[in-house]
């Protein structure tokens, strides 16, 4: 395994536990002190870029549905199509992208994806400010952003292990999850306040800037990537099949993928209707809706901070099963917000509690399972493994959005939210009824690197 660049970016530093020559008088028995990745120059640049990119993503996720519902008068079915468009690229091109990313320079891929997303959102800004905005335009922009996000997400998850080393991936993933949680906490609240004084297209313009800053930060990373020699490349079909075989051939990983995929399908059913539920059914203002999202996301931030320790305390396998069970009652609080509001409990309070608990356990689950699969996978297969997982766990999300829009139109918004809760219960079963619930340590941890 290659040793990552040191904190100053000039060269490698000895990994934890690696024997080095000590100066006279030093204690050879003293354990090596582990430095935080906050001092790792290259990871710090990735972290900064990720922070701005995540903030931009959360502002866009918040602003676009409100723009569609309030300004463009989108129907439940149109919101379903918009939700589907946001993830349609993962089942459509995800497997191909995994094979491509394993052949590509990942830093350049991240930069290009940020620039494409900035350009796509700039189209929304221009159209909105000139009075030419429409739901079909938003759907087209969502498809373009979905394609760019496939490249970004696969390259990002494949880049981290080589950048920081396998022995630091749990810390790296925790820091990146914490950044995402902060963005989720800050983004909706900031967006809600800004919408008091600016239009939704003007708010989207802010997201264009954040993606440009993200591209600039990632561009400052100085890390040499070793790509497979061109002559060793095999047909794309062969390489794609290799990634799928790896994921489906690992019994524990197969169960995690099933749990995540079914839960994401159910989450997309409810996600398609959340803006309509909050703004029309519960009669929240955009500012209140943003405040609910921000307050609820504090749970995700707490989850990111404690995820690594919780995994060590409870066990790597057991914490995945615990998280899969614990987010079920939290999700049920979303449809319960309406009857509880009729009983005198403000809907915003119920949504804050439910969202906070749900985000806490989702982040704990993600840190544990992403770190597990990154350790388990050979470095040369990381892109295809991550793309295969994304294909399987996000492939049903466009369908979930369409189902949500259809059911919201023909069954009802609240009833559809309860159907999504039932789907999440089914989704948790592959993990809850697996050996993960009894396992403390998971296989695949990398050995200490050799000198």
Automatic annotation (TrEMBL):
Membrane topology: Multi-pass membrane protein
Annotated transmembrane regions: 46-68, 80-101, 121-152, 198-218, 256-279, 285-307, 319-338, 344-368, 389-411, 417-437
Subcellular location: Cell membrane
Keyword Membrane in record: yes
Gene3D superfamilies named in the record: MFS general substrate transporter like domains
Keyword ATP-binding in annotation: no
Protein name as annotated: MFS transporter
